[in-house]
Every structure is written in structure tokens, then in C-alpha cells.
Amino acid sequence: MSKRTSKIIILICALAALTLFAFFLKDILVPFIRMEINNDVEGAKELLRSKGIFGFLTVALVEALQMVVVFIPAEFIQISSGLSYPFYIALILCDLGVCLGASIIFILVRTFKIQNESYEKRKKTIDKLAAKRGDKNIIFFMLLLFIMPLIPFGAICYYGSSTKIKFRNYILTVALGVIPSIVTSNLMGAAGKAFIRNDIPFWLLILIIVLLAALLFAVLLIFINKFFLKESDGTPDSPVYGLFFRIMKLVAGGKFKLKIVNGIPESVKAPYVLLFNHQCFFDLLFSSKLDPEKAPTFVANEYYLYHLPVLRRLPKKAGVIPKKLFTNDFVTPAGILRMLKKGYPVAIFPEGRLSPDGKTNPIAEQSGRFYRKLGVDVVLVNITGAYFAKPKWRAKKFRSEVRMEVRRVITKEEFENMTDDEVNDVINSVLEHDASAEDFNVYPQKNKAKGLENVLYRCIDCGSLYTTKGAGNVLSCSCCGKQYHLNDHYRFDEPIGGEEGTISRYYSAIRSIEEREYDTLDLKVRVRTQVFDKNVRKKLKEEGECEFTPSGFTYRSKSVEFTIPADKMLAIPFSCGTEFETYYNGELYYFYPLEKTSQTARWGLISDIMKARNDENEKE
């Protein structure tokens, strides 16, 4: 059957499903709920009796047709039927509807060779799961798919119909496999009906729904863990990995349009190492899409992986490699080697932190020697368009096109003729980028400067500290009154230092002021401190004082005093307007300034200046 004919059939089914559901809402569900609210029990019963077999058929047909079209969620009719009919009737109707839909799909696939684009989009996911299982038992695999979250029933039926399974076994598998989900949705509908009747309070309704969802999730997790996770546990093939990126995609909210300008060359085969510049938090989501055949594992900040006790096991199950930022450890290299030996790509953001100004951060930990010894290709990838979509200093996400481009591959053969410094120079030059030079995105929003003072914390005209404020599209200084207006390309309306005014040039101008004052630097701040032990568990909370001088960074409190000398300082990561952080003796210290919270960016910038000075001294 041609694609055009297939599309017409799917469209007709979709329109029929929506029309029938609209009828169900208008003639059955809405009037039924009104009668329940008015405590007209007899009227509600009479309404359902008057609709009779047609009401039953509507539920079954909507359930069946949504299976055929795939992209219409089944929960709408399942919860609605639970609201309208007794639980056992709703369960039977929904299950019959699923079986009817599954039968239609079986005929369409086996007899008419129909193609459903909504299924085709999910086919890769199902094929990957099938390949990982290596299981010849189609019945068992279909049952497994039915209890896995985020895979529509219709897609599973299209998959089953494309195999050699007999119809009898196919339809029995479908009938049994969908029951847990239908039961949960119908019970939610029944709970909603009880609430409408005032049989239960609102808080209990919410509790029931949450408990039902939690119970279903727990059953699914136990089943998946027993029959599926054992073979892919601790790798990017784990369902936990896929679930994480589905959640991240939901959080992204459709704000980003990803375009892969230049992908992985055909000559590059896993395992290999991917190196990316780091523009925004969602770079993880973007980079996971680069190789459609082999998902990479990630090296990530261990704090974000392990500081929430309830989620501590999930990163390990997803194959994520933890890293203590800007400290030397053996765990991360060992994790990278382990995943490469298993045949997976490893994705690394060598900057170790988000860019504050849109320019690639200095790479504090140069790893040329390590990459040379891995014995795999290293792929250098540039991400553009992501910084202004969601910079670290702004809470809101702006709609943007994000581009990803492989700009250089250093093959394992090339490494043999390169020195460590040459490798580092190539990595630094290829990953270097300034987001302010991009022209392909336009930002007409009226609040582009909000939060900008948490990076551009100093006025470059009068030199005043912490007097800048971003509001609307204007960055202004409360001391001298100077204003910088942002246009739709996120550039200022007047030049800085004789060149086009950009956020990165403003930040560079602040750096120049700090460098001139560096030799007399004596920066102190009282802080509220959170300390995490070597296993990233909260150890204590206290108050103390942080100090920066040209000789290094010092922290003092009642419990501890330590200094990180200037020649050992790599970098101080920070969260805009919130905190800055460092490790000492393997323990993580989070410092929250008790005043002038925009100064967190200053601590990060001065640590970069200190590292640059030390590098210069080593060269001399």
C-alpha cells in the first residue's frame, strides 16, 4: 500500500476517534458529571441506560481507533470510561476496544502492508530493545513492551503484527498486556467520580491518584529490573537512560530546534570519545542525538548525580560516569576506560562548567596525554545557538535553533604522531566559540537582560562593583547611570572597546579591570556553607568566611580552615547569584554569600585569572 493511502487511512481513523470522543464528552460524560454534581443519581443512571449499547460501542471504538493512529493517548477514554461506568464495565469495554484496535492493525499490516509514520518514529526504539533482549519469544517481549512507560499500545501492536506471531497468540498477548494500564486509568476515573459525588475529599482524591501511579510505576520497575535491566544495566542501553532524556526533553518544552549540520563520519565507529563545548544545561540532550545508532555515556558532575538520595542509583544504572570537578581522581578515567571497552562512545564537556558569557571557558584540565593513550578516535563537536536559548544567568528558555557540527576528528593513528601539547592545542582551538558572533537566531523578547547582573556584576564605565542591574532589555549601573540596550541579536547598541558591543566583550572588559587590580586583591565574604562528604552526602551546615588573595583561596569556619594555593587552583564553578564551590580533601564545599549574591561570578572569574597567571609563570 502506498504511503499516501496509508496516511489517508490513518487520518480517517484519527478523525473518527476524535468525533466519537467529542460525542462521548457532549452526550454522555459532561451530562453525567453534571447530574453527579447535582446528586441526581437516578438521572445519571437513566442517562447511561438511555445510551445503552451505543455508549458502550463509543468507548470501545474510541479505544480501538486511537490504537490504529498511535499518537492519540489512550488515557483520555480510559479515565473517562472509569468516570462514567462501574469499574468492571469500564475495564471490559476498554480491553475489548484495545483488542478490536489490535485486530484492525493486524489486518492492515498483514493484508494491506500499511505504513504508519507515528509507529515508524518509534520503531527504532522498539528495534533497539528487541536487539538488546535477543529474545526469540515474541509474546514475552510484547508483554514487556506493554508494561514499559512511554511506548503507545498501538506502536506495540504494529510491531507484533510485523512479526510471524500467530493471531491467536497475538490477540491474547494484547488482551493481557494492557490490563495493568487500563486498571490504573479506570481506577483514577472511579476515584474522580467518587470525588464529584463528594464521597471523598479532594486531598484523598489526589492521594489515590498519586498512590495508583506510584504503585503502577513500582510494579513496572520491579518487572523491568528483573527481566530487562540485568542485560543493559549500567549502560546507555538501559531504559533509565532513555527515561532520563525523555524527561529532559519534556523540561526543554519544545523550545529548541536541533539541527545536525555535520554528523559523525562513517569512518568513525564506536567506541570513540566525543568532546563538546558547553553552552547550556540542555547540551546533554543535544549531544545525545548526535549518533542515532549508538547513544553515548556521559561524564557528569557527581554532585548533580548523587546529592538526591532517592535518585542515587539511577545514574549508575544509566552508565553515567561521575566526576569531581577540577580535582584529580582515578574514578573518572577508570569509568571512561570501562565504557569504551564495552563499546560505547563517551561524551565529555572538557570545560567542566557552563559558559558564563557565551565564549568557551578555558579548559583547566588539559587531558591530551590521556586521550592519546585511550586508543580510540576523538571527535570534536561544536554546539552553537544554545547559549542565548538558556544561559546560566537567565531562568527562562527562549525558542532557538541549536546547531551541532563535528569539526574535527583526531584518529587513533594521528595520535601516534602528536605530542600532548599538540593534542591540547587542537582541542582548544576547535572547541573555541563565541555565541555573540552567531546571527541565525533572533530574540524579540522584552526581558533579555533579566538576571544579567549575575554575570556582568561590575560597571565597565565607572568600575563600581555590584551596581549593575538587568531589567527588560537594559543593563544599567545605579552608580554612574550608564545604560546598555540589547537588540534582537543579543548585542548592545553601542561598541565596547572600539568593537561591537557584546556580552562576551563586556565580560572581557570586567576581566581586564580585575586583572589590573589582581596584585592588590583581598576579597572576603561571609558565607553559609554546605559540606558534602566523599560520597556526596550532606555532612554539615555552618557559617564561615571565604578569602581570595594572589596567594590562593582560603576558607575559615569553626570546624575547619584550609587554603588552596594559587598554583593548585584550577577553577571555581558557580551558580549565578547563588553559590560558588570547591573541593577540599575529596569533600565538596558549597558557599552561599550572605550579601551581594551577584559576586559569585566574581569568584569564578578571579579563579580563571589565577589559573592563567600560574600557567604563564610555568612557561617562563
Helicity range: 40-55%
The major pleated sheet works out as: 7 strands, mixed
Uncertain segments: none
| Helical/strand content category | alpha/beta
Shape: globular
Strand order of the largest sheet: 1-7-6-2-5-3-4
Question: Which band does the percent of strand residues land in?
Answer: 15-25%
Number of helices: 20
Radius of gyration (CA) equals 29 Å
Q: What count of domains describes the coordinates?
A: 4
What is the arithmetic mean of pLDDT?
86
- N- to C-terminal distance: 74 Å
Number of strands: 17
Explain the overall architecture.
The chain is an alpha/beta fold and 620 residues long. It has four domains: 221 residues, no CATH class; 199 residues, no CATH class; 66 residues, no CATH class; 99 residues, Pleckstrin-homology domain (PH domain)/Phosphotyrosine-binding domain (PTB) (PH-domain like), CATH 2.30.29. It has a seven-stranded mixed β-sheet. Strands 14-13-12-11-17-16-15 form a seven-stranded antiparallel β-sheet. Helix 4 runs antiparallel to helix 8, helix 6 packs antiparallel against helix 7 and helix 6 packs parallel to helix 8. The longest helix is centred in the first third of the chain and has 35 residues. The termini are far apart.
